[in-house]
Every structure is written in C-alpha cells, then in structure tokens.
Amino acid sequence: TLTLNNPEGGDIEVVIYNLYGQEIKRFQAHGGKEVKIGWDATDAMGNELSSGIYFARARTSQSSQTIKLMYLK
C-alpha cells in the first residue's frame, strides 16, 4: 500500500516503472489530502512481477515526486 500526502487535494496519478523506465502500471485517485493506493505487484495485464526495484511517480496538477520501491517475494 502506498500512502501519499496530497496537500492540494484533488486528483493524483501514480505510475509504477521498472528499472528500465518502462511503465508497469498506472493508478488514478480522486479525493482528499491523504490517498492510499494498493498495488498487488502485478503489471497492467495482471501478470505477477518478480522481486526487484521499482519506482513510483506520483503527480498532481501542482507537483510531482518519485520514490523508490523494493519488492521482495
């Protein structure tokens, strides 16, 4: 579960990338100042991903932030 603080409120987009910069999965969330997104370590087609390093980029209309994720089975 990714918990994101969104001080502006409103819409937020989260995109998961692999180490090669390829897009794995995209989420759209609407709502308040704290947004929770559940990622089940699958790609956009539902395939389970392998252990490794991934990146999550959260973007609103005002800002963008990237965080590093480590997925271990």
Description:
With 73 residues, this protein is mostly beta strands. It contains no helices and six strands. The chain has strands at residues 2-5, 12-17, 23-29, 34-37, 52-59, 64-71. The chain is elongated and about 35 Å long. The mean pLDDT is 91.
How would you concisely characterize the structure shown here?
The chain has 73 residues and is mainly β.
Separation of the first and last Cα atoms:
15 Å
Instruction: Categorize the overall geometry.
Output: elongated
Give, in spatial order, the strands making up the sheet with the most strands.
Answer: 3-2-5-6
Q: Roughly what percent helix?
A: under 10%
What is the strand tally? 6
Helix/sheet category? mainly beta
Q: What does the largest sheet look like?
A: 4 strands, antiparallel
Q: Work out the helix count.
A: 0
How much of the residues is beta strand, in percent?
A: over 45%
What is the H/E order?
EEEEEE
Radius of gyration: 12 Å
Q: Please, what is the average pLDDT?
A: 91
Spans where pLDDT lies below 50 across 5 or more residues:
none
Topology readout:
Blueprint: E1 2-5, E2 12-17, E3 23-29, E4 34-37, E5 52-59, E6 64-71
Antiparallel strand pairs: 1-4, 2-3, 2-5, 5-6
Can you tag this structure with a few keywords?
51% strand; two-stranded antiparallel sheet; 4-stranded antiparallel beta sheet; 73 residues; single chain; mainly beta
